[in-house]
From TrEMBL:
Record flagged with keyword Membrane: yes
InterPro entries in UniProt: COX15/CtaA_fam, COX15/CtaA_HemeA_synthase
Gene Ontology CC: membrane
Keyword Transmembrane helix listed: yes
Name of this protein: Heme A synthase
Keywords noted in UniProt: Cell membrane, Disulfide bond, Heme biosynthesis, Iron, Membrane, Metal-binding, Oxidoreductase, Transmembrane, Transmembrane helix
Organism for this UniProt entry: Hymenobacter jeollabukensis
Amino acid sequence: MEIPAFVRRFRTTATLTVVAVYVLILVGGIVRSTGSGMGCPDWPKCFGQWVPPTDISQLPSNYKEVYTAQRVAKNERLAKTLSKLGFAEVAANIFAHPTQYIETDFNPTKTWIEYLNRLTGALIGVFIFATVLAAWPYRRRDPAIFWVAVLSFITVGVQGWLGSLVVSTNLLPVMVTIHMALALVLVALLIWALVRADNALPREAQGAPLAPGMTIGLVVLVLLTFVQIVVGTQVREDIDMIAFGLNYLHREQWIAQLGGAFTVHRVFSALLLLVNLYVALKLYQTGVAALERLATATLVVIGLEILAGLLLAYFAMPALVQPIHLTLGTLLFGVQFLLLVRYWQALKASHTARFPAVVA
């Protein structure tokens, strides 16, 4: 049976959007590993310009005071809004954090790295809007796909707003963590819509011995990876503070100065590896080739992720490996979530094949 053109169009567009999100995560990792997060002290412009400067002579002599004042004023407005919404303590913590008063020196390389990060983010907006348009035919055939696409579009908008807060609070840790967590939510939404739009199931899934309890195990696995990435983001924040204090030099000293979050991150890595191995073993026993391939992909990604972590821990935090480590972590989450949705889809197919009368 030929696949309708609107289905192919949606799959292609949504897939490109997922790829673009991962490219943005990689670029964001490069921004963090090079210390370029505040390469542009304002948002959405960069030093008040749509095309950032290339030399300090293009900036006023008091540019630090100017952009610090702008950031503090923006945070004051944010604090007032949060207080009105009942988050007075959160508002106080954000506004009182000393990082907002720190202004970094102009560095053209870091400025353009951050600017390219923003251009990539703008590209995501274009892709996600195209995904919503591609999902339009589903509003009557399968409304859930259309509304998830709309929710993804809203999520990207919120991400952009959070990005401005990350800048205004000078990379405040809680803001960076929320920013990362929301990126994972966006990946999950897009993957769910893609699988939902793909009704083709492998025939072997219809008679496979799939257990409902395995779905719970996969949910737990996805949640564990989500938590691990959040903890990793906290570790990343600690490293940023250490790196800033050492002027981004003496990388061999960074790991030794990390605290409890790093210990939790390492222990969690071992736990994740064991759980992934157990889940993969169970999936290999189903005889469903599609699930087996995803299980293998999960093991490959987590293996590469652990290897990258070891390189960071024992080889003086190579800058090149930092964004790769982050991207692999988010890729692991995406593959696991895809595996979860695919397993649930196959489970329903198996149940339908065994109990057609009940489903009918």
